[in-house]
Structure formats: C-alpha cells, structure tokens
Amino acid sequence: MIPDWNNSAVLPPVRPGAQGHSPDRSPYRAMMTEVIERFATSTERITILRGLLTYRAALRKNGIVTGFQWLNGSFMENKELLQNADPNDVDVVTFFNLPDGIEEQTLATTNLDLFDNQRAKEQFHVDAYSFVLGQPTEDFDVRNISYWYSMWSHRRNGLWKGFVQVDIAANEDENASVLLDQIEQEMTN
Fold first, then answer.
1. What is the mean pLDDT of residues 20-48?
2. 65 domain residue, yes or no
3. I need a surface site. Which of 51, 83, 107, 168 has the fewest CB within 10 A?
4. Higher pLDDT, 169 or 39
C-alpha cells in the first residue's frame, strides 16, 4: 500500500509508525491499480498515467516482460500544493531483463521512443531511464543505481521522501486502464 503524502506533501521515506531501520520503506512496492487509485487525482495526472501505461505496453511489445520500475519525480509529490503547478511527467527507471536473443544496443537503437529520454517525455509523459538486469554489475552500474536512489530519496531542498516500485509484468495493466477510465468519467460528470 502506498502511504499518504506526509505534512511536507511528499511520500514518507519510511512508512509512518515503522522504525527507521524497517524494511517497510521506499521504494514502496505497489500494483499499477494502486498507483492509479492513489495518483489519478486530476486530468493532468490522468494524462500522465495514460502515457505511463502506454509506455509499459510498448516495452512489453518489444519483449521487455520481466523486471520492475521505480516511479518518482514531482508526480509522486503533491506538486499542486508544493509549487501550485501540475506535474509534467513521471520519472521512471525501468530495471529489466533483455529479451532472448536481443542485445542491449540493438534494443535501444531500434526503440528510440522508449530509450531516448526526450522522445519518451514527448510521446509518453515519461522521464525514462533504464538498467539491464542479469548482466555483470560494474562500478559504473553501482554508481548509477546509487545516484537514482539517493537523488530520488530527497527533494532538491534536501527533504527526505519516498517513491514507488511496480512490476513490469502486464498482469494488471488492463485493470489499471479500466480503473483510469472510470476515474476520468467520474471526474468529467
């Protein structure tokens, strides 16, 4: 379950009531339906969530079916309260296993809309980053993962915050899409 925003309008880094060393902390594991229920609170956020679901479907269409994603950025904050503005996108790091028989470079160069950050923002409202699982982990890889975790665990002003992790599998994306349609209909009626 994704916790509510705290008094600082961010997800808490550790679940409220849990001890600081508790494993019940960010990244909070969630289902896509939970993400929809929690963050589909405006037409702007619904547009971003639709983009995220489309992005996830495009990844799977290209053979990326196992792994997980970290979701963060101002989308995971109450930006409307903090900055009196709507989020523009959702930050996503996709940790995935390469499809059988496909090399990372080939996958990236033949799917620029998915792996080129600017294109992914324009097409899907996703600030996209990726990391291939199952490969030898080098110093550079550890630094990248540490960078994402440390940067995503804080706001620019140094405030600690949390973020969300979802599985890349399609198990419930269809349900999430239906739920998003229902929320949008309720909002417009």
1. 93
2. yes
3. 83
4. 39
Range of the domain at 138: 28-184
Query: pLDDT tens digit string along 143-165?
Result: 888 888 888 888 888 889 999 99
For the chain, the domain total comes to 1
Is 157 within a domain?
Answer: yes
What pLDDT is attached to residue 76?
Answer: 94
Residue 128 burial by Cβ neighbours in a 10 Å radius (0-12, 13-18, 19+)? buried
Q: What percent of the chain has pLDDT over 70?
A: 100
Classify residue 45: in a domain, yes or no.
yes
